[in-house]
Known about the structure:
Blueprint: H1 12-26, H2 45-57, H3 63-72, H4 74-80, H5 88-96, H6 100-117, E1 127-137, E2 146-148, E3 151-161, E4 166-174, H7 182-186, E5 191-195, H8 202-210, E6 214-218, E7 223-227, E8 236-243, E9 256-263, E10 266-272, H9 279-297
Parallel strand pairs: 1-5, 5-6
Antiparallel strand pairs: 1-3, 2-3, 3-4, 6-10, 7-8, 8-9, 9-10
Helix pairs in contact: 1-2, 3-4
Amino acid sequence: MSRTFYPLKKNYATSFKTLYKPIRIAMNTMTPLESRGNRPLQMSFEEHLKALIFFHLQEHTSAQHLLQVLEEDEFARSEIAPKGGIKKNSFSEATNTRGLDQFMFIFEEVQKQAAHVLPNYHPKLGNLVAIDGSFIDATLSMQWADYRKGAKKAKAHIGFDLNRGIPRKIFFTNGNGAERPFVSQILSPGETGVMDRGYQCHEKFDLWQEEEKLFMCRIKAKTVIESYHVASDSIVFYDAVVLLGTDGINQTKKPLRLVGYEVDNVRYWIATNRYDLSAKQVAAAYKLRWDIENSVKAFPWSSS
Length: 304
């Protein structure tokens, strides 16, 4: 019995070429993937990446489904598959020995291209980067991941450009990987990290200020140094310079600004070293992160 495929869209060739154009540009400066042994590569990095893009673009149901299309479809056979075709074992080998450095390079280069093209929707708030850690399912080839009983997870540490709606940077660790150390690596000068309560660490707050990293982080405790006026009809009910934590135990050495606001009967406390924004703008910036997090959690692959 012949296999039934999902019908291919009429414009899939155009869609593929449009998606692949920025990647092709990025490959001009990429270090080529070379074989790790005496056997030549059965698929070049470019051929492998093309096949994976085509796989997701056409919503193929399995590797076998993809390989059959690469053999039978005229466009896929001429533009996606290697000239001599590709068999299942060779495709599996290419996937297991994929060029991780090359994949990361392409991601970073395409992100830079996108950042120059996409509009900045929130220029008055500065460059905002939502920072979070998210669990992902680990495969058997990910030997570095966390393989505790019933928890085969790796963790992605992500910096998400809130101004343009695209991911900026990504790092991977095992499932037990700590999230706070990646803040310094994710943030570039002039960017503001927007983080949830899991990132509250008074020692890190001091460190990030010493590194001149800007941040907004939802927190819990405070010691007031100086208060600012807050309008009675505003969602903002608190705006002050504070020290966080308990004196002599875990109190921050450097003061921070703390903004408190309320939405739908939920109170939010945001610690930040952004003094150039109004309290309402600080609240608006954190809401952008909240909206993105809720959107990401709606996807079935998310397990954060």
